[in-house]
Amino acid sequence: MRLTIERSVLLKSLGHVQSVVERRNTIPILSNVRLDATGDGLKLNATDMDLEIIEAVPAETGQPGATTAPAHTLHDIVRKLPDGSQIELTYDSADSQLSLRSGRSRFSLSCLPVEDFPAMVGGEFSHTFRLSAADLRALIDRTRFAISTEETRFYLNGIYLHAAKSNGVDVLRAVATDGHRLARFEVPLPEGAGGMPGVIVPRKTVGELRKLIEETGMEVSVSLSETKIRFAFDEAVLTSKLIDGTFPDYERVIPTENDKILEVDRKVFADAVDRVSAISTEKSRAIKVALEKGVLTLSASSPEAGSAVEEVEAAYDASPLEIGFNSRYLLDIMAQIEGEAARFDMADAASPTVIREVNDGSAIYVLMPMRV
User: Fold this and answer.
1) pTM of the entire structure?
2) Deepest in the core among 16, 79, 176, 343, taking most CB within 10 A?
3) Are 140 and 248 part of one and the same domain?
4) Residue 27, C-beta contacts closer than 8 angstroms, at least 6 positions apart
5) 158-166 and 169-177 as β-strands: parallel, antiparallel, unpaired?
């Protein structure tokens, strides 16, 4: 195998594939990236057996061939080469070494047999549809902060993607929850997504997908079956196993009877929460929200740091209420609300609170209160 490729092209692609590769691997071949040189260019492939990425990049191929090389080492080398440099890759099967030459730099990397590199079985995809990059980005960004990191509840370690109805309209809905908070966001249902199975996309896949979306403005082709999901971009294809579990009935935890309505300027409120939370303990991050007509008072105290109080103007005319929240969770939700005003629907100090944007119903957030 012999080819020449521009550094920035190879670095961008290696950045995508090496992040799929786990740093610690008990199976040596999974630490490697597969390199396939063809007449069309270079194809890179990396997998951790649950997630696979294949990306094609332009290159001048002198001699077709294939090998596998250590992903993180190769990425580090290319990253440290000067901008604008040309890289020549040569693989000699006689000594199983990949030679990398660029300017006055020479590197030799040990390779493993390409035959040992595992292929992810594609299988049949029952549904395929196209989503704009903007819609897919919004589905991820508006929900992923609520994904659970608790491995024992593995069925919460991802985003639940499914078709649903909202006010009589078909929508594609993303939901994530960690038991303390819930995020739900929806976009119009794309053509071809009707009747799709509800699937749980793993946290790692969501992260890798978000990186790829950042670099495209094109539509993304989404294919899924009961066990796998595939996202196809211009040059890259990301295929992932789905979480094999049942996502809980999230509709049951979204209150519909909350009658105490608060409307507040999102930025003013978020800034005040951020300031007051400086006093709250690192462990609980608890702050108290006291509501009276026309005013909201935020407070926090801790034995070590002292206390903080701040008043914020707010539209509220129900009976007085005191309720506690985790300030970090509040700030996470405020960061996702794009409009100027946030609306809180509350019942009492012990019941879940529904938070949404005043003029946009596509996103709903549910936050469990804390004792303070």
Assistant:
1) 0.93
2) 176
3) yes
4) none
5) antiparallel
